[in-house]
Amino acid sequence: MDASERAARRAFRDQTAIVGVGTTAFGAMYRDLDPERDPYQLGLVALREALADAGLSKDDLDGLIVSRMPHYGRMCEVLGMRHPRFVNVLPGEGRQSGIALQYAAMAIYTGLASVVACVYGNNGRSVGARYGGEARGLTTTAMYDAPYGMTSPGAVTAQMFRRHQHEYGTPVETLGHLAINNRKNAAHNENAVMREPITMDDYLGARFIAEPLRLFDYCLINDGGVAFIVTSAERARDLAKPPVLISATSQGADITPNYVADDFWAEPLGHISEEIFGAAEMTHADMDFAQLYDNFTPSMLFSLEGLGFAPQGEGADWITPERIALDGELPLNTSGGHTSESYMQGWALHVEAVRQLRGEGGARQVRDARVGLYACAAPLATAHILRSDA
Amino acid sequence: MSEYARPLPARTQATAPYWEAAQRGQLVLQHCLDCAKPWFPPSEACAHCLGDRFQWRSLSGRGVVWSWIQMWQKYFPGFEDESPYNVALIELEEGPRLFTNLVDCEPAEIRCDMPVEVVFDQVTDAVTLPKFRPRRD
Fold it and tell me: Which superfamily is assigned to A3-128+220-388 in CATH?
């Protein structure tokens, strides 16, 4: 990173803010399937809530980023948004949720738009999404892999975790701690889909999906919508809720034909870590919590190591139930994450970060939460540092 | 062999040479005529130098297991009689990696970095799948 890039990141710090968040009712919808439920409708419900949360009306929006819906145009129609100044659609992959926030913040910071809504709708459960076994899968090699029965993001993650075990001796109980902690947090979240606590015996006794990964290592498959609204820090201070400032954000990548990263994304996450902590002028110890993308529990392990919370290969020693609990040194996935709250592909983790930083966490509130981290370990990796404006 | 229920390789212009070679008992990949590097999956240009002159060449058929899993979930038809089944990611001697099944070994024997070699499994009249087995030499 050269001096001008460093200066640009410093200048960007705390200039944009998340001002409104909204979600659908995840638990209620899990038990109520509707094959005609469409992602625009889900996004609309979430956006209504986000607008009310911010004290904005839909006519205040002049930017829109959507994901996991076929086209931005239909969402604009639904919202009666005839003349947006900044609008587009991102693929329905979880790694895009952090990128949605980045695009929104960039649009605000450069003056391309003044208030940007980021809207996500997922009807996967109602339409029978299986996340495996598709004729043409999600990776370039999928058509070569299918004859061998190789398919699904979970199975690729299982391959990577097995390799991690081979290189570092990581026990499966490390993943168990993460799954159990997620569920413990979801028990305090009325909106979560799965709230029954689980024990290590439950974790180890659950069926294998792609061994070494078991049922509780996997995200849920559920319907829902999420929205968040981004504007300038200056404008944010006049709105209904305390602003949550974007202190730093960064993206890195390891694009391979089969999703697998040799180093568990240590390379891109290492750059990201340097950039966000440098730009925010903060350290790991300043993070009051972390919301870590958890499509499968090993992704959380890879984030913690890649970003430098734990030394590479030592995640197993670092991840203890005490350290990652709500009252621990680094509370993780305080809402229950994808394995227990809702599989909103990172979008609801952003909402949870905002709620925690506003003190709206209720029974799962992290005490004095002022600074939080979101991170996603994936072929496109992202992380942000968010903080309360106080 | 008409009862074979598992997914078959999708044949396209780009992939046909790979599967036709397997049918002849050869494991081949595109090699760049400018920088000599091989690549997988098939593509119209060399990702190392962007050269578009290439030749399909035979590989040694040797590699190591980078990682492997036992698949329990039933995503595809045809695997019911062998559940769970293994899927390994092989790192070929020449560099590229392939997902495949390991044969002639028990799950308890499989290790990361284990040396393996290609074998050819003719699954239908028209289709042969490269698979791998432990190298016993």
Answer: Thiolase/Chalcone synthase (3.40.47.10)
A109 labelled catalytic: no
Angstroms from A66 CA to nearest CA on chain B: 30
**Chain-wide mean pLDDT for chain A?**
96
With an 8 Å Cβ cutoff, is A255 touching chain B? Answer: no
Test A149 with B101 for CB contact under 8 angstroms: yes
Instruction: Report yes or no: A189 and A341 within 8 Å, Cβ to Cβ.
Output: yes
The edge-to-edge listing of strands for the beta sheet with B38-39 is B38-39, B28-32, B54-58
pTM of the predicted protein model: 0.97
Give yes or no: A203 in active site: no
Other Cβ atoms within 10 Å of B125 Cβ, number: 10
Contact A208 B112 (CB under 8 A): no
Does the pLDDT value for residue A128 go beyond 70? Answer: yes
User: Considering only CB atoms, which chain A residues are within 8 Å of B123?
Assistant: 147
Residue A390, pLDDT > 90, answer no
The residues facing A20 across adjacent strands are A229
Domain-wise residue ranges, chain A: 3-128+220-388
Q: Which helix (H) or strand (E) is B120 found in, with range?
A: strand B115-122
